[in-house]
Every structure is written in structure tokens, then in C-alpha cells.
Design goal:
The structure is a single chain. With about 190 residues, the chain is mostly helical. The protein is built from six helices and seven strands. It has two domains: about 60 residues, no CATH class; about 120 residues, no CATH class. The strands form three sheets. The chain has a three-stranded antiparallel sheet with strand order 2-1-5, with no helix packed on it. The protein starts with a strand and ends in a 10-residue tail after the last helix.
């Protein structure tokens, strides 16, 4: 069995020798002052990169972690996952295409409602050699509809998953250990539904 220092969270030797008495557990060690527990701190507090702080609660004999930090961390992972998915779609287009997308879409929507309205950007694209204006507008609107469907789906899943994490933190029927376990093992995968 392993023992952990309640103040440092460091793992202690499993057993040690004390005089003629042989092997003893650290919790029986005269000099330990009760500073050891056989309850392992949460993995998140032991990891080398960005450990989540935790403290020993003597009264309840549990490790207590800052659930807000853990919640924020998992929420950031979910958000990053969603952004990576969206970036995988938008990265297919050149920077100039992405930078001009807002004006292309605005003018395409204006033209689709009233083809007599001024659309100088689209006119410039057509003059520069793009498709005829009607085909260009149709292509822009079709592309936008497809991207909007993906974006709304991914965004909806991100919001739903972050809300689930908040509910876990707020659930008074769960122990801290149960909350940590649920959050740590929470599935952050986002499925792109086209």
C-alpha cells in the first residue's frame, strides 16, 4: 500500500524500518504526526503540467480540489476541440477568402432579395473573372448554409457539454471525489453532423 503526505501530496515509502520492530506503516510512525494517508490524491493534482491544487480535509478524510479550476480546464478543452473542428473547415480557404467572407455574404443576401441593389464587391469579383453574378451568389449562399449547419451543430454541442460540466460541479448529491472523477473522465468529443 502506498502512503501520501497530506501536506505535500508526495508519495512516501511504502514501508520503513524502525529499530527491532521491523516494518511499520507511516501512519503508525511516531514522528509522522498523522501526516500520511493511504488515500491517493487525485491524479490531476499529481500531474507535472498544470497540476490542480488540492488539500487534505482531515474531518472528512478526503482530498479536496478546486472544482472551479477543474471545471474551467475541462471547459477550455471542450472549447478548443470545437475551435479545432471549425478551423479544420475554415482553413481550407485562403486568408483573402476568409477576410472577405462577410462582405461576400452580405452582398449575396442583398442580391438574392433584390437583384437591382448595388453589390460592388461581387461586381468586382465578376469583373475579375469569377462566375456570372447569379452563379456566384448561389455558390456563396450554398457554402454559407453548409457551414452554418456545421457551425451551429458544433457550437450547440460545445454549449451542451460545458453546461453538463457545470451541472456536475453544482450537483449536491455527488461527493467531491465523484465530481472529480466525472469531470476528469468527461467525454469531450464533438461529432460533426453534416
Amino acid at each position: 500500500m502506498k502512503y501520501y503526505n497530506k501536506e505535500t501530496r508526495n508519495e512516501s515509502v511504502e514501508f520503513y524500518r524502525t529499530g527491532d520492530w521491523g516494518l511499520e506503516r507511516p501512519d503508525k510512525w511516531e514522528n509522522s504526526n498523522g501526516n500520511f494517508t493511504n488515500i491517493s490524491p487525485p491524479d490531476i493534482s499529481l500531474r507535472e503540467k498544470d497540476p490542480v491544487p488540492c488539500d487534505w480535509n482531515e474531518e472528512e478524510s478526503v482530498w479536496v480540489v478546486d472544482l472551479e479550476i477543474l471545471k474551467d480546464e475541462k471547459t477550455n478543452e471542450i472549447t478548443q476541440k470545437a475551435e479545432d473542428i471549425i478551423n479544420s473547415y475554415t482553413s481550407k480557404y485562403s486568408q483573402i477568402e476568409r477576410d472577405s467572407w462577410g462582405i461576400q455574404l452580405r452582398e449575396a443576401k442583398v442580391f438574392s432579395v433584390d437583384n437591382t441593389m448595388s453589390t460592388p464587391f461581387l461586381d468586382g469579383m465578376v469583373e475579375g473573372g469569377a462566375k456570372n453574378k447569379q452563379e456566384l451568389v448561389s455558390a456563396i449562399l450554398t457554402k454559407n448554409a453548409g457551414f452554418s449547419a456545421i457551425l451551429s451543430n458544433v457550437l450547440g454541442q460545445r454549449v451542451g457539454k460545458t453546461d453538463e460540466i457545470k451541472k456536475i460541479v453544482q450537483n449536491t448529491d455527488l461527493s467531491i471525489a465523484e465530481k472529480v472523477d466525472l469531470i476528469e473522465n468527461f467525454n469531450i468529443d464533438i461529432e460533426v453532423i453534416k
